[in-house]
Design a protein that fits this description.
Blueprint (H helix, E strand, L loop, with lengths): L4 H16 L7 H12 L4 H11 L3 H10 L11 E6 L2 H5 L2 H12 L12 E6 L11 E3 L2 E3 L5 H22 L1
Parallel strand pairs: 1-2
Antiparallel strand pairs: 1-3, 3-4
Helix pairs in contact: 1-2, 3-4, 6-7
The protein binds FE2/S2 (inorganic) cluster.
The site of FE2/S2 (inorganic) cluster has 12 residues, from helix 5.
């Protein structure tokens, strides 16, 4: 169990979830999905905890986490932006769009902003080719993004939303 009290309840939730599964060892991928949903990512201590709980080698857990691209070992931002680099979007300027989003967020694709508000990734076709070039933020699709002002407006929406929720919390 982790010594950090701020994550103790997450480990407890994870344990409860694992305990509820009939075939624990066979459900490693499902358990990792749940762990990532709880912690936001899969750091060493979470992987080690799962290995202990399932009584399997931690190398096996690491092997699965590092094999699948949907698992991440790095902390993610509160919002995840994905620029589509599929063929239709590429032809219609997704490289420019990606460069613009990177510039506005001040990070490269695959990175997270220092305030942990945004992570930026790229995806292959998301099935919205008619709207190319396309970006998603937390799964919401934004299309025809050829104007940097439009990108600025979208990102600002999430920044403002965050400021409002922080004001309400404090
Ligand atoms: S190629 Fe981007 S949505 Fe299809």
């Amino acid at each position: 169990m982790c010594d950090n009290p701020s994550t103790d309840h997450l480990f407890q939730q994870l344990d409860d979830y694992i305990d509820s599964l009939p075939y624990k060892k066979e459900d490693l991928i499902v358990i990792l999905h749940q762990a990532q949903a709880l912690f936001g990512y899969l750091p060493d201590k979470v992987q080690w905890h799962i290995a202990q709980k399932l009584d399997i080698p931690s190398a096996k857990v690491y092997g699965v986490v590092s094999f699948y691209s949907f698992f991440t070992m790095k902390p993610r931002g509160k919002h995840v932006a994905n620029v589509c680099m599929g063929t239709a979007c590429f032809v219609r300027g997704s490289e420019k769009l990606q460069a613009e989003v990177e510039k506005q967020l001040g990070i490269k694709t695959g990175q997270t902003t220092t305030d942990h508000l945004f992570s930026l990734d790229s995806v292959r076709c998301i099935g919205a080719c008619g709207l190319a070039p396309v970006m998603t933020v937390d799964g919401k699709v934004y299309g025809r993004l050829n104007d940097p002002k439009e990108v600025e407006h979208i990102l600002a929406t999430y920044e403002t939303e965050n400021q409002i929720s922080e004001t309400v919390v404090h």
